Structures are given as C-alpha cells and as structure tokens.
Prior knowledge:
By secondary structure, this protein is an alpha+beta fold. The protein is built from three helices and six strands. It has a six-stranded antiparallel sheet.
Amino acid sequence: MSKTPGFSGRIFIPTGEPEGLRIVEKSNRTGQGLVFPRAQFTEARRRPELKRTGVYLLWGPGESGQLPRVYVGEGDAVLPRLDQHTRQKGFWTHAAAFTSKDQNLDKAHVQYPEARPFQAAARVTSWRR
C-alpha cells in the first residue's frame, strides 16, 4: 500500500457554526471548496466563490435508505446551477462546490473532475451514466 504524504489545510467557518458553511483550502493549492447544508444555501449563495467555474456535489438520503443519493455537476458559474437545483431537485440536504481561488478554471478544466465520480462508480458497480 502506498503511503500518502501529509499536508496542511485550512477551514474557515464564516458563521461560527461548525456544521454550517465551511470554506476549505489545501495549503499550496489554488483550489478551494465550499461545503454547506441546504438550509444555509441563502447565505452560501452570497459567496463570490460560487460565481466562478467549478464542480459541485449535492447529496441527501437515498431512496432505499442504505446509501446517500449523490448528484455531480459543473458550471461556468456554479451559482446558477445550484439555484436551478434548489428549484428542481428536492432530494439534497448538503452541497459542496470546488472552484479556483484565482479564477483560472474554465469549463474544459472542470469537465474531467466532474466525470471522475461516474468512472469510479462504473468500476465498482454495473451502474452507468
């Protein structure tokens, strides 16, 4: 088994609520993540990070109750997609969005990481996109 080297990271909690909106950064990387419960989407949508190109995940209870249901998407700006899913997808209880701190990502950059979860699922199940 290969050993992954350690790294440093930073979590900023703007509201002071550990289970609320969190902004996550890995040291020496240009990317960042926002993680938040759906109940705090109104606050999260004010964040400038969501106006950038990125990949996002929505998750909530699964239909069978065993595994969570997960939706993976991407957008030239993540916010309009999340707004759309707030109206059209009722299942999700939490979201995570991954963007660049320096606005160096474009749509071509995010299509690969968006496809990776589907490739992993296809390897371990008979599920296909």
